[in-house]
């Protein structure tokens, strides 16, 4: 008897998780657009303004920027997978009752969330790789400048 209640409670709990997952995907999409804008700003001159800072300051700046895109690269696919699996349970249950239209809706949500999650992960990964290369080059330039200044003193 407890076993049936536990499974029913678990089923309802998982069903309620779909909306936070969808909200999380929407938030990740917004953050991805934000990070893309920051990356474009850095490409077209934003990094040049940071040439005069110390290497430690720049390292903190770079670490913060990279953490955010790394989080997007990892969380997007996880949320997409959750958005895939959550509607499949009710969809398959609807299929057993002969409700093909409910299964079709569940499959549509499942595939859409997968695609959105993978898109977020792909773009987040690409932004992270490009930024790492830019930041490493910038950091080497800053360190070379610091070395040159120290050598002249």
List keywords for this structure.
153 residues; mainly alpha
Characterise the protein shown here.
By secondary structure, the chain is mostly helical. The protein has one domain. The chain is built from 4 helices and no strands. The protein has helices at residues 2-16, 18-46, 55-96, 100-152. α2 runs parallel beside α4 (100-152) and α3 runs antiparallel to α4 (100-152). The chain is elongated and about 80 Å long. The N and C termini lie far apart (81 Å). Belongs to the exbB/tolQ family.
Briefly characterize the structure:
This protein has 153 residues and is an all-alpha fold.
From the helix content, strand content and strand pairing, which structural class follows? mainly alpha
Number of strands: 0
Distance between the termini: 81 Å
Q: What is the count of distinct domains? A: 1
What is the CA-atom radius of gyration, in angstroms?
A: 23 Å
Low-confidence stretches: none
Classify the helix fraction into a percent range: over 70%
Global morphology: elongated
Estimate the mean pLDDT confidence: 86
Number of helices: 4
Largest sheet: none
Q: Report the portion of residues in β strands.
A: under 5%
Q: Strand-and-helix sequence, N→C? A: HHHH
Secondary-structure map with pairings?
Elements: H1 2-16, H2 18-46, H3 55-96, H4 100-152
């Amino acid at each position: 008897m407890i076993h049936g209640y536990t499974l029913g409670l678990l089923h309802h709990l998982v069903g309620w998780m779909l909306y936070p997952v969808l909200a999380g995907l929407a938030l990740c999409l917004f953050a991805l657009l934000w990070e893309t804008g920051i990356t474009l700003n850095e490409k077209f001159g934003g990094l040049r303004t940071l040439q005069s800072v110390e290497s430690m300051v720049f390292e903190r700046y770079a670490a913060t920027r990279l953490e955010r895109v790394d989080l997007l690269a990892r969380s997007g696919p996880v949320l997409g997978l959750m958005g895939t699996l959550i509607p499949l349970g009710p969809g398959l249950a609807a299929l057993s009752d002969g409700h093909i239209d409910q299964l079709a809706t569940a499959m549509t949500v499942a595939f859409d969330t997968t695609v959105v999650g993978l898109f977020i992960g792909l773009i987040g990964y690409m932004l992270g790789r490009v930024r790492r290369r830019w930041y490493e080059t910038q950091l080497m330039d800053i360190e070379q400048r610091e070395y040159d200044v120290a050598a002249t003193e």
